[in-house]
Structure formats: structure tokens, C-alpha cells
Amino acid sequence: MGRTDYLDKLNDKQREAAMNTEGPLLILAGAGSGKTSTMTCRIAYLIREMGVHPYNILAVTFTNKAAKEMRERVQDLIGEGVNMWLLTFHSACLRILRHHAELLNYGRDFAVYDPTDQKAVVKAICKDLGIDTKKFSPNYFLGEISHCKEQRISPKNYCREYGFDYKAEMIQQVYEKYDETLRKNNAMDFDDLLLKTVELFEKDEEVLLRYQNRFRYIMVDEYQDTNLIQYTFVKMLADAHDEYGNPRRNICVVGDDDQCIYQWRGADIRNILEFEKDFPGATVVKLEQNYRSTANILAAAHSVIEHNRDRKNKKLWTDAEDGNKITYFRADDEREEAGYIASEINRIGGDYRNFAILYRTNAQSRTFEEALSKREIPYRVLGGLRYYDRKEIKDIMCYMRLVQNRADDLALVRIINEPKRGIGGKTIEKLQDRAAERGQSLFDVLLDKDTISQLSSKAEAGIKALAGIIESYGAEKDNMKLSDLYDGLLVNSGYLKALEDQNTIEAQSRIENLMEFKSVIYDYEKEDPNMGLAEFMERIALLADVDNHDSDENAVVLMTLHSAKGLEFPYVFMPGMEDGLFPGWRAFDRPDGLEEERRLCYVGITRAKERLWMTSAEMRTIYGRMDYTRESTFLHELDSRLIEGHGIYEKMPKQTAGAFNDGASAEKPFKPFDQLKYAQQQTKKKAAAMEQAAKENFQPGDRVLHEKFGEGTVLEAQGKVIRVQFADDTKKLALGFANIKKL
Ligand code: ATP
Ligand code: MG
Prior knowledge:
Elements lengths: L4 H4 L3 H8 L5 E4 L6 H14 L8 E5 L2 H15 L6 E4 H12 L10 E3 L1 H15 L8 H14 L6 H5 L3 H19 L2 E3 H14 L1 H10 L2 E4 L7 H11 L12 E5 L14 H4 L1 H4 L4 E3 L9 H11 L20 E8 H15 L6 E5 L5 H10 L4 E3 L9 H14 L4 H7 L9 H14 L3 H5 L2 H5 L3 H20 L5 H11 L2 H8 L2 H23 L5 H13 L10 E5 L8 E6 L18 H13 L2 E15 L2 E4 L4 H5 L5 E4 L28 H21 L7 E4 L3 E9 L2 E6 L3 E5 L5 E3 L1
Parallel strand pairs: 1-7, 1-8, 2-3, 2-6, 4-5, 6-7, 9-14, 9-16, 10-12, 10-13, 11-12, 13-14
Antiparallel strand pairs: 14-15, 17-18, 17-21, 18-19, 19-20
Adenosine-5'-triphosphate (ATP) binds next to helix 3.
């Protein structure tokens, strides 16, 4: 490559930005306009043409993947390895702190605590303070603490910020102790990396000066998603002066206010909108040509984002061809939706890497995984695990495996302390040794009173409860519908409750996945209402086993819309275009929730280079419940001239729209049905109903209705066991595990 070939490839505006090296610079432009490309060229220009030493450049971005891609692009441009700070926020701060930790009274070799370590710390604190972690989970406290650190609220100021009620006081106490502990252990958590760096800069002018002098050129990609602390970090470094005392402020930020999608995690869109106020005299470059997408895709993206009121007006153009229209397909149900997408991929053909399926929630991945495996299309789930590899799914399957076969020691070890029952690694080892000595299964040892009574009283109670559940469901499994068994296990094992108590985004997503498992079960029940647990487990095991792991090379990519930021693909599918799913029902609870979802939709559409498909399902089983759906608000906002296909604007009459449309009217804003909450409630209700049946007084002669066997007459009732005559058979049923009602 000739010396400045790479500059020739830029358009005038981009080149202007790349060569504008002194003073504050804001590149505020829409998706695919070459912001990231311009920034990488600017780095190359600084090094090659301006003779800037890479040592003097700091470029930060959000994810490791983005940092890696940028480093590769810069290396391509300057044709050699570069040893410069092109890093994520966290790794840049870590490097700084390693040099100066002692100024903050940390040892240089301080530890960085990951979430597991953090949790262990909070757990110990709760124990000390006598806080019931069943009521307030460690993750709950950690979420609060993280939020505080992002907003720079110190432990002692917590209550001043959030009021002096009982809960706030408790959080303050935990936060204070947490801070003390980490300090005592010479450790920092991830949020500390940013926070402590800023504190270091504030405390020690000399250090700050040193980095200001070093980083003469600062660049930030995806600036619209910075939070307060990241913003402060960047601003402090950039507010510098040159050797003559003149302000230098060589900061270049790049972003798109239309792509701010992390407000729910503290991102502050004002950081980019107020850049010119923060850095007076800033040069603002607006890039207006989109190079990524066809004209139709670009126009479609605009027609959606235009509906956001709170935005700077900007419009991209392209000289690309119109290209295909957006293809819309309204499937009958989610299986057909997934089948359609898989068959489109096969029809188009070529490199599988060209295809991306971008969904709103992780729980949606399952149907696509199944449809793709069925057609032997390789895929990989980016930024997340394959559905059946997820922890919560594996855990609950282990419960089911044990119910099916209680000699399954592996499954037992996995869930014996999941949820927490006070059974640590040592205890498990002891129990395993005992089992080995006696040639018994681990479960048999759990039933042994003498062994169990030697454990702590908490562990003893936990084991008794667990063994009881496995035994009873084991005995009753053939008398129960699979879905009843599943709901009962989730509730009675305490697994669901433990997640609910955590009250974090992660726990919420686990609950979504567990509720989605009900859809799997209902599917099989539909196929064969009497499917037994054994057969079900076999079928699932086969599905889960389909080996996709070594298909890294050439595979369709599946990921959430959030993790697709900054990436691009020739062919993009956006499934699940339905109100309640996308926009998600949570969006309707917050004032700017819908606007943030709309930005996410804009991000999704603008990932596509050549073709874009949007799909929805007329009926969707989500979290085990089948419902009519309503086409997404965003589909209706999208310019109808740009979209073609099946079922567009097929407005359903209200009566058939099921629970979705209840109470919806022209005056009242539409509020989608909270499917997840409903599924959780149903699960708990069903478990409670089975418990309730155990309290009923059944008498011989009573007419009853059983979920699986239908109507029958009680022949005999003894304690918790009843014998019932059904149409073809008599059955012995254990109350508490039978979904049975008196008629
Ligand atoms: P996003 O907002 O999604 O992060 P972006 O503004 O960072 O997008 P880039 O990823 O830098 O955009 O560029 C989008 C695509 O356009 C890339 O494939 C890039 O190679 C191409 N591109 C950028 N500038 C030009 C140009 N001047 N000529 C041709 N192609 C270009
Ligand atoms: Mg970019």
C-alpha cells in the first residue's frame, strides 16, 4: 500500500476528520457511516504522517472484541505491529493502577475480584450482619453497589442519596463492609478499576499530569454509551495543556446518539450530546454517507428511528443500489418462523458466516438452534451459551435426571447445593467417600439417617428436603404430566425462588430461560400427551448433544441485538417482531423505554449490508404459554413501501387477539401482556394447587378430575395416598404431587 492510499479511500468528510488531529473533535454520525473506520485511519495518520509515537495515543472502546478488531485494522493500515494503548476502559484503567496503586494505599499486586469473589465477600458480610440472604441475595447488594460506584456514590453517602429507611440502611452497611473487606484484602472489583483510577487522578495531580502528557491523542469509540465514571475518566485525561500552557484537549470521540442502547446500565446519552459544551471550540464532523447498507435498508432504518422525539435530526444517504426490499414473513408459530429462516439460509447459500440472526432475548435462541441443527446448518451463539448449555437449564435437567434415575451421582453432585442448602465441597466429598465405601449411590447415602445427622443442622435439613423431593417425584412421575412435574420441581426445590430473590438482570434472564423450557415441554406434550419422563429426557439429550462446537469457522451467528453493536453482516434476520417481545414489555413501563427499544431496532436494521428479513409469529408459545401476538409497533412504523412479504399489516380483530389486547383501545396506550410474570405465576400456582390438594379431605365416592387421567371416583383414601378408579384403570396417587381437583 502506498503511503496515503488509505486516506484516498476515505470520503472528504472522513478524511477531514482523520486529518483533524489537534483540538477536540466529535464525529457524530449514523450507523455504517464509517465512524470506526475513520477513527482507525486517524490513528494510522497520526503515526505515519504526523510522526506521533504510538506511545502517545490512547484509544478506548467497550468490548474486547471491538478493541481487537480495531487493533487489527490499525495494523493493516500501518503495516506493522503496533504497541499502543488500544484497549477497553477496564484494561486501560487496570494498567494505570498497576503502576500507582500504592498512592491509593493498595499494594501494586492487588487482586481483581471477579463476580464469584465478590459474591463470596458479600455472603460473608451478610452472615456477619445477620442478613437473611434468602430474602436479600448477595447479587442484589452487588447490583446496588455497582450502581453506586458507577454514579460515584460512596458507602457513607448511600442513605443520604436514597433515604434512611430500613432497607437503605442495610445496604449502606453492607456496602461499607464490602469496601472495607476489599481494601483489607488488597483487592478491587471491576467497577473499582474505573472508580479508583478517577480517584487517583483527582488525588494526585502529578500522576494525572503524567498521563495527560503521555496521552496527547485520545480517542473513544461508541461514546454514546459511556456512563458517568467513564466520562469523567476521559474528560480528566483530555483537559490538558501543552508545554506553553495552552489547552491541548486532543480528544476525538465517535458515536451515534441513535445507537445509545445501554441506558438501563447507566449510559448517559448527554455525554455525547453535550460534548461541544464540555469542550468548547470542538470541531464537529457529521458523516452522512452510509457505506454499509443498501438504500432500502438504510431508508427502513430511518423510517423507524424518526419516530423518536428526543433526537438530533440527521439523515444518512447512500449511493448504493436500492437492493431488495425488506422481506417480512409472518409465520403461524415460532417453529414455522425458525424453519422459514433456516430454509432462507439454505436457499441463499454461500458462506454461513454471512448470516446473522439477531434476537431481543436470549431465550429466543432455542427454536433457532433446533431448526438449524435439524437442517445441519452450523451455527454459533455469540456472547452467550447455547440454550441447553446454560447453567439453569443444565441444573433443572439434572433434577429431572435424578427423578428419573436416582443413581445418577453426577446429576446429584451438580444440584445438591443448587439452590444453596449449606452443603459445601467438603461435605460432598465426605458423602461421596461414604458412598464409595459402601458401594452405594450418593443418593442412598443421603437417605442414611446416621450419616446425615453428623452434618450441620442446615445441611441436614437441606438434604432431607432434597431427598424428599426426589423420592416423591420419583414415585409419582408416571402419574404426572411432564409439565406438572416440571413446575412442581422448580417450585419445591426452591430453585425458582432463589433466582427471584436475586433480583438482578442476570437472574431475570435465567428465569426467562427456565420459563422457556416450558415451551419445550408443551411441544412434546402436544405431540404425545402421555410422553414419559424417560423418553422426554432421551429426546432432549439427543438435541443437546448435537455438536456444533467445532463449527467456529463457517457458521451462522446467533446473538442478541445488544451484542451486535458495531458489527455488520451481509444477511440479517430480525425475528420476533411482536409487541411484548420487541419492543419488550418492560419498555412500556418506563417513559423512555420505548425510545431505547427503538434505538435498538435501528441498531439491528443497520447491521445488514445486503438483505434484511423481519419475521413474527401469529401465535407464539413463549414461556410455555401460547398466545396470539400483535405485530410490532416498529413494523408499523417502518415505511410500508420498503417492505414486502406475507402478512404485513394484517391487523387482527380484537376478539381473537387473546390476552394481548385486553383493555387496549385507541385512547389508552397499548400495554403488552407480561408473559414472563404470567408464566412464573402459573408455575407457582400449579405447585400450590398440588400442595392444596394434599390438605383436602378426600372420601371414597368423591368424584375427582386429574390432569393426566381425567375424571374418576375415589375408591379409598388413606392419609396422603388415595386410590382412584379412572375410566380404564385404577391408580394410587400421592397427594401433594397430583394435579387433582374434587368435582
Ligand atoms: P456503526 O455505527 O455501526 O458502529 P460505523 O459508523 O462505525 O458503524 P464502520 O463500521 O466504520 O461504520 O463502517 C461501515 C462499513 O462501511 C464498513 O464495511 C467499512 O469498511 C465501510 N466504509 C467506511 N467508509 C468507507 C468509504 N469511505 N468507502 C467505502 N467503504 C467504507
Ligand atoms: Mg462503529
